[in-house]
Design a protein that fits this description.
Distance between the termini: 22 Å
């Protein structure tokens, strides 16, 4: 069993982004979304740590965040925070997609 350190780091980045948004701007939706998506990303990293083929929660979380934050970045053209989160989420989608391609599911 190997630990998904990249996944846990991504989850920490997402959750801390929500906390920073709350502290700097008083944004409760930012805090709620950051903690929700950070928690889901952390749960996905835990699942991958236990079973490397179980990438679906992490893939859905990072895919949703890349779409949401990508749309926000496209509209605002500001790198912080939307561009950073969209980029990090796209990198996670790529990492998880490669993991899916490299380890085919065992059919029984």
């Amino acid at each position: 069993m190997s630990v998904d350190w990249i996944g846990y780091g991504y989850a920490t980045l997402v959750a801390s982004g929500g906390v920073v948004g709350y502290v700097k701007a008083g944004s409760v939706p930012s805090l709620a979304a950051g903690l929700l998506f950070g928690g889901l990303a952390g749960f996905g990293a835990y699942q991958i740590s236990n079973d490397p083929n179980n990438v679906w929660v992490s893939l859905a979380t990072s895919g949703a965040l890349s779409a949401i934050m990508g749309k926000r970045f496209y509209g605002s053209r500001k790198f912080m925070p939307a561009g950073l989160m969209a980029g990090a989420s796209l990198l996670m989608v790529g990492k998880l997609s490669l993991a899916l391609l490299r380890k085919p599911a065992v059919s029984s």
